[in-house]
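ok trying again, last paste got cut off:
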Amino acid sequence: MIQVLINLLANAARHSAEGAPIRLAGERQDPQVQVSVSDQGVGIAVEDLPRLFRTFARRDAESGGAPARAGFGLAICQGIVEAHGGRIWAQSDGPGHGARFHFTLPATETAPPETASGSGPTGGGRLRVLAVDDDPQTLRYVRDSLAEAGYEPILTGHPDAVHDLIAEHRPHLVLLDLMLPETDGMALMQRIPELRALPVISVSAHGGDHRVARALELGADDYIVKPFSPTELIARIKTVLRRSALNRRLEAEPAEPFAYWELTIDYRERLVTLAGGPLQLTNLEYRMLVELSLGAGRVQTHAELLPRVWGPEHPGRSGAVRTLIPQLRGKLGDNAADPAYIFNVPRVGYRMPRPGGPDPGE
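nice, full thing came through this time. structure:
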């Protein structure tokens, strides 16, 4: 809808004298909302009004047979509005009398967010989400998305406030922008131990950014790329929170320790040792190692590992598995060409040896 407004306002400005007023109005007309952009510009001949939104009108204009305002911008507006269940049209009293463009959208009632006494995302009280971002518009957008979904938003644009906000509000999850004034999300994760102990979703303006990879290495549980929809944001939050709950349940109901060659996984203590020394793993690396070890002896596909490690609502991107496995191998000292712990089965998935099996090389 931002693109629609940009196109309509640019169209009005282009065909108006400098300094001439342009009016933007919105009105609720149940069961819809009508938005109008009006100008006092060159106007449009009545016979040309039906042809304004045709995608080929710009070509017609070259031969003098199309209205002056026609172009791809208006056709794009029509496509977007109709995709949202609305309609768009133009009015004018003729050349020299300006033009009015109107579009409608279905109106919907938004239910108030669930309160602590209701059944929120956890089935009990509301979960608290701390959003750290220096862009006020992003914070407002996140606040509204969280509140509508039944979460309690805690917002700040100041990195120095993060430590105190965590201590005061004890959030269940943190949305952390990777680009902050005078610092970045990665430095913040390194500086604040309490932040590393929480589920973290890093927020990036660029998909595949090296900062995203670094944030995941430092312990972030997932990432989301701007701009994102409320649907994607809430799905990612639910996935990470569910995965965090799975970690806690595994600790509460542990299996017997896994031991193979120099690697030991103590599920009860959430402790991984290699050659007798503790191994520092991120949450995602630990979850991947746990899933592979619990299924030791058989091949686990990308499709199996994705929902188990990232959660059932995570988008099905096998690339996430391919990115995480090399990180885990690096910490295990494993060689992909001659592995000891994590074996690759091309175009299928990965497996770990069964405990008690022959040592590597045997």
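cool. The first helix runs from residue 2 to 14. DSSP finds twelve helices and 18 strands in the chain.
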